[in-house]
Structure formats: structure tokens, C-alpha cells
Amino acid sequence: MLLDCWPLAVDPVLLNLNDQRVFFAFNSAEISDEAENNLLGQSLYMKNHEDTKIQIAGNCDERGSTEYNLALGARRANAAKAVLVKDGIAASRISTISYGKERPLVKGTGEAVWKYNRNATTTVK
């Protein structure tokens, strides 16, 4: 059965790309194993829906300057895109943008909040 080898606990047929998020460590754009598994699920969805185009938005927590976080958000979005492209998705189907710290997922302060705001969010275009 296909799902026996699937790395996620998500049925790929049911996977909805809108608002899929992968999360990052502080001050990092490194793709974790968990993030890679999520992105490979997104890749599978895109392979099965060849007309789908997406945008990946890089986001940061509130620490750091606006300029620094815009650059870090861009690195995060591009790191996520690179996983998809390496898995065979055409780069032309994926756009990236950085919002830096301007669009927090969760309002507030402290690591309990910040860990959710350090992400790359996929939306269908």
C-alpha cells in the first residue's frame, strides 16, 4: 500500500496546500527533517495536480531589524522552494516572497509564540 511508505501521517490525496507551514529554528533557514517531510507531501500534491502554482512566504519572529528579517524570510522561502524543485517541481510553478516579521501567525512575545512565527507558508495561486 502506498501510504505504508508515506513519511507523513497525512493522506496525500487529502493534502490541501493552502496554509501549509514549515517551521524553522531561531535565526535559521535550515530545513528540518519534519519540514522536509511536509514539503515532500506538498511536492506529491503538485505532481498530481500539474496546473497548481504556489507562493511560499517566508516569515520571522519579532526579534531583529526589519531588513534582517526580510532577508531571513527570503532565505526561508527559497530553502522551502529548493526542496520542491529538487523533488522535480518546476521552479516556474513556485514564487516566493518574504514578509519578515510583518505578518506574525501568533501575536505576543516569548518563545512559545515566536516558534510559530518562524515559518514558510504555502498558498495556492
Q: Which SSEs are present, and which pair or pack?
A:
Layout: E1 20-23, H1 33-48, E2 54-59, H2 66-86, E3 94-100, H3 111-117, E4 119-124
Parallel strand pairs: 2-3
Antiparallel strand pairs: 1-4, 2-4
At the fold tier of CATH, the topology name is 60s Ribosomal Protein L30, Chain: A
Q: Which residues sit in consecutive blocks of at least 5 with pLDDT less than 50?
A: 1-11
C-alpha end-to-end distance: 32 Å
Number of helices: 3
Q: Tell me the total number of β-strands.
A: 4
Helix content: 25-40%
The overall number of domains is 1
Any idea of the CATH class? Answer: Alpha Beta
**Largest sheet strand order:** 1-4-2-3
Mean pLDDT: 90
Please tell me the CATH architecture by its name: 2-Layer Sandwich
Strand content: 15-25%
**Gross geometry:** elongated
Query: What's the helix-strand series?
Result: EHEHEHE
